[in-house]
Amino acid sequence: MTIVGTIDRPFTHDPQKQAPMTSSTSEPSGSATPAVTTTGANDSRQNRTREMQLIPEAMARAHMDDRRREADAERRALRLVAARRMQRRAERVSLRARRALAIAVMQ
Predict the structure, then answer these.
(1) What are the b/e assignments for 30-39, b being 16+ CB within 10 Å?
(2) Contact 19, 3 (CB under 8 A)
(3) Neighbour count for residue 84 (Cβ, 10 Å)
(4) Which of 19-23, 34-38, 58-62 comes out lowest in average pLDDT?
């Protein structure tokens, strides 16, 4: 005994297990409604769910890239500040050495 579903209560909701729609005898053979296939719908639905599952991963990857760029920019800024500080210190030391040499030569 086979269980047959109705339109209101289908036997299964899985599109792959449902019987394919066929044209009825009342429709002409070359009518505008072709036989429906579910493979394209299933593929697009599967791709859509796979893409939707990957959205958080892509967002996390983009967020980490932004954070990495910000950290690199901050590191470069700190290096620049340290280099300017060392340059000023070297200039002061050079000026002191020049003064000490001038004083030693004058005596």
Answers:
(1) eeeeeeeeee
(2) no
(3) 10
(4) 34-38
